[in-house]
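PROTEIN–LIGAND DATA SHEET

This sheet pairs a single protein chain with one bound small molecule, zinc ion, given as SMILES. Inputs appear in the order they were entered. The predicted three-dimensional arrangement of chain and ligand is reported afterwards as a token string under its own label.
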Amino acid sequence: MDGLQFREPDAARCVGCGALAVGPCARCHDPVCGDCCVLTEGSAKTWAVCLSCDASGGRSLAGGWLVVLQWIGWPILILLLVVIVLSWFFK
Ligand SMILES: [Zn+2]
Ligand SMILES: [Zn+2]
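PREDICTION REPORTED AS:
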């Protein structure tokens, strides 16, 4: 009997309520139980996302992709501005 082992590796606990998790969230991969996740209809598969991901991104996974595009888009815009400013300086 190993009394020091409090966390069993394959018995993940829900991040919302601490109950036994049924699977990871499709977005943040935190373990969630059946009560703390919502089913999201994706393109070919039904995803389960936790309530905090559902609140931040809506029921579609497309919301997550928009965030990714924003993170890629802003550095490109900033780079473009730098190139324009530099071209003014070195005319
Ligand atoms: Zn839960
Ligand atoms: Zn999540």
